[in-house]
Amino acid sequence: MGGKESEKLHFGLSGLSCSSCAANVEKALADKEGVIDVSVNFATEKGFIYFNNTKISVKEITGIIEGLGYDVKYEDADEKLQKVVLNVSGMTCTACSNRLEKTLSKEEGIISANVNFPAEKLTVKYNPNHIKLQKIKDKSSELGFELSLEEDRQEEETDEEEVKVLKAKQKMALSAIISGTVMAIMMVHMFVIPIPGYLLITAALAFPNIFWLGFHVHKGSYNALKNKSPNMDVLVSLGSVPPYIIGLSGLFIADIQTFIEMATTIMTFHLIGKYLEIRAKGRASQAIKKLIQMGAKTARVIKDGREVEVPTKELQVGDIMVIRPGEKIPTDGVVVEGSSLVDESMATGESIPVKREIDDGVIGATINKQGTMKVRVSKVGNETFLSQVIKMVEECQGSKVPIQEFADKITGYFVPVIIGLTVLVFVSFNLFPEFHMSIINWGAQFLPWVNPDLSPLALAFITSTAVLVISCPCALGLGTPTALMVGSGMGAEKGILIRNGEAVQTFKDIKVIAFDKTGTITKGKPEITDLLPMEGVDKNDLLYVAATIENASEHPLAHAIVESAKANNVDLGKVNEFNAIVGKGVVGYVDGEKVLVGNRKLMKENDVNFSKQQDKLVQLENEAKTAMMVAKENTLMGIVAVADPIKEDSAQAIAEIERMGIRTAMITGDNNRTANAIGKKVGISSVISEVLPDGKVNEVKRLQEKYNIVAMVGDGINDAPALKQSNVGIAIGTGTDIAIEAADVTLVKGELSGIISAINLSTATFRKIKENYFWAWFYNAIAIPVAMLGLLHPMIGAAAMSISSLNVVYNSLRLKKVNVDPSYVK
């Protein structure tokens, strides 16, 4: 999948009316040779596709989707697609613009080409891997049109979601006015005074409601039937158009029952439901909007010795930004001058500002609260922390939970089955009228909308229509996506980034959580605690030798020794022939003399006598300190003890995890005594010590063999193989130090309390998913049989269908009220 011939494209879809539409797109693409993986999310109206571009092209993918009747819009998230606006000269009429559009649209690599004839502009989106801009110009030139690049300009941003909600609201309001008028006229006609030309008046009023405001429904229905993949649009079309046509035929045939009022009301209820659903889905997806809005629009940078304000998108790595108090930090960077308190709550959920000084990293979109700082840009565009967070939240919202697979399969057959049941009911009413009339007469005793005075044929038609419009595949399709949208958004606000829906489902079944020690349970910043020279050895000499050789090492413990030397003004010497021996220590030559710094194994191998120091070594290790012996020319100089302070909340978090019924383990390279001392301090169930870096994967495998479902918590970089081996990999760190790509779950805030919050959030999210599926199935299981018996009027059915979808969406929104914090911080 990682070869040059494989691509991943993200896209947005418009025209989806229910989850079966999304399933149809998935199936149509998945069946094509060259498609590796495809996923379409009905709730977000987005999807992605992995494909082999030597076997299927972007043009073919576009054709398949558009052939199903949906509009596709490719996103630029992967930076594979480019969009450019060009000036066009040589056009004389719209025929010219149409010819240019059609010709370019057929070219391999061009996703879309749109020509605005009055403005003489061409907007083209293309894949530069398949076609170059010059070829587009050459092709246009062959047609007699010259293209030139338009100067870059600031375009007015439009919130597509707000436009969509506004349009749906306008349609709903107009439809409600029309149907309300029709119903008012009906009441006057039936109970006050007969209205001449009543049928013609109602038909004229209902026509724009059903065929104009509902045009998108019928268009979607046509495309679905053309592609043999019926969806909810088909149900609504069949529930509104036939009743209208039959009612209209009353103008020509006497004694025909009019169903026009029913038809127009069904469409109105559908449009009301769609408006409320779009609005609710917008609320569910607010997290990404908030994240996008967090970014600063402009930045103040130093150019030619003076401050210049530029758009954030024009920033480049290496630029020096000036950030004053109260301003947002435009993008990720490193402080090069000044210091300040920075509000990083948007990234970590921590409300207390953090001090940032020279050489400290800062995160874009966080707020400078105090002093003026100069920051060197380190990341821009899609590489920034905020962009990675947005990407991860979108991936989670676009992913699927394993439990969803069954629902998707059912949804694919749902509409055809409903149409079959509708036909069955209609036929049954006419074959067994006595049986159905007995049920109708019984229901009429307590249901005012059941009318036994109608003919069996009219009742058959009304009942069949009720079955069509009350059935709701949407509720099934919205169950998982809306819960994931809300849950992932809540997580992002608290610094918990969940990569996919599978992690949400797996979290609830975790039996063991294995922790790396350094940087996870501990702070990851070791400090020298003890400096114990042998008799006749000066402390500074011991520190000089140890720090000089460790200065060549990249180990965190080495850094602590070097920092201590600097703090005590000990100048470092030169080291030669340095060699780091995994699991033992380091060897090298300092000022021409052989120096060893390490553990017992290293000393024994080099015949260094440390027998008199055994008790002291054991004492230090029992205090959770790492004791390193320093020897020069095979003679012991002394002991340097280093400890990595335990995080403040580690013990409380591990205790709560144990109370939740989840066992804890710690995997570390430390010796047995040191590891057990730390394990005892924080309350770890199982301590696995003296594990070499490449042995962590095997330890995770052993835990899986014993406990089945295992989560691994590490820093996301050094522990990547172990994180991937585990059932749920959890990367923990702070700010820009986190490798977000390394795990299923990323905890931005470097505290273990985030694990508890992540477990609580995942459990609550999965509970909502199950609740949503229950209500969706319960609704259909009750409503469809009742409708088949003739006990539900189609108008009530249309309203009930909308309510069932809304119930699922609003149930997901209730997730926002759940408190997922650990008990000790509540």
UniProtKB/TrEMBL annotation:
It catalyses: Cu(+)(in) + ATP + H2O = Cu(+)(out) + ADP + phosphate + H(+). It holds the Pfam family Hydrolase. Keywords: ATP-binding, Cell membrane, Copper, Copper transport, Ion transport, Magnesium, Membrane, Metal-binding, Nucleotide-binding, Repeat, Translocase, Transmembrane, Transmembrane helix, Transport. The chain crosses the membrane at residues 198-215, 235-253, 410-432, 457-478, 777-803. PROSITE patterns: ATPASE_E1_E2, HMA_1, HMA_2. Its main location: membrane. One of its GO terms (cellular component) is plasma membrane. It is an enzyme of class 7 (translocase). It is found in: Cell membrane. One of its GO terms (molecular function) is P-type divalent copper transporter activity. Residues 7-73, 82-148 form the HMA domain. It is a multi-pass membrane protein. The keyword Transmembrane helix applies. One of its GO terms (biological process) is copper ion homeostasis. InterPro entries: ATPase_P-typ_cyto_dom_N, ATPase_P-typ_P_site, ATPase_P-typ_TM_dom_sf, ATPase_P-typ_transduc_dom_A_sf, ATPase_P-type_domA, HAD-like_sf, HAD_sf, Heavy-metal-associated_CS. Its EC number is 7.2.2.8. Involved in copper transport. Belongs to the cation transport ATPase (P-type) (TC 3.A.3) family. Type IB subfamily. This is Copper-exporting P-type ATPase. It comes from Proteinivorax tanatarense.
